């Protein structure tokens, strides 16, 4: 569950929403979707490709002298109370920066490691779209990574998004070859989602 789009003066909202699920689900992971990040060269280490301080992603300033700009959103990973949900962590893995880590411990058998719970995904495609979209809309890559993380093999996978919005989860499923079910209370968003799905699935000539 992605909870975002709230103004900085309401920081409790994501945590309040999370607590509503506590009696029926296990909070297995909390993923931080980072939209913008700034890194000082001195903190990067000895990597020749990075020569200066860097700032990447989509930065949205806040017109306030009390609040910081929000550069990330929460992804709450809820699972059934059995606690037996396994993940395919390397399905969204990343290569080692320091190759000497390969073989250093039992799990490091290849040049691929667990990405961890901080995902940097700039929301460029959503922000630059001329179509209407909900304030909390996310890029296709975000649900795509969540689906891959669960190691489900299409076409057996069925993904349900109860807050479909303009259909980015459906488009991610189409990319992966998975089935999807989605709905939204806003008819305009549903119409937009159906149009985008049709555009994606129609044969190219």
Can you describe this structure?
- The two termini are 37 Å apart.
- The protein has a domain of 72 residues: Vaccinia Virus protein VP39 (Rossmann fold, 3-Layer(aba) Sandwich).
- The relative contact order is 0.14.
- Helix 5 links the parallel strand 7 and strand 8.
- The chain is built from six helices and eight strands; from the N terminus they run E-H-E-E-H-E-E-E-H-H-E-H-E-H.
Protein traits:
alpha/beta; 8 strands; globular; four-stranded mixed sheet; 205 residues; Rossmann fold; single chain; two-stranded antiparallel sheet
Q: Roughly what is the average pLDDT, rounded to an integer?
A: 88
User: Which architecture of the domain at 134-205 would the CATH scheme give at its second level?
Assistant: 3-Layer(aba) Sandwich
Instruction: State the helix count.
Output: 6
List low-pLDDT spans.
none
CATH class (first level) name of the domain at 134-205: Alpha Beta
Q: How far is it from the N-terminal to the C-terminal residue, by CA?
A: 37 Å
Beta-strand residue fraction:
15-25%
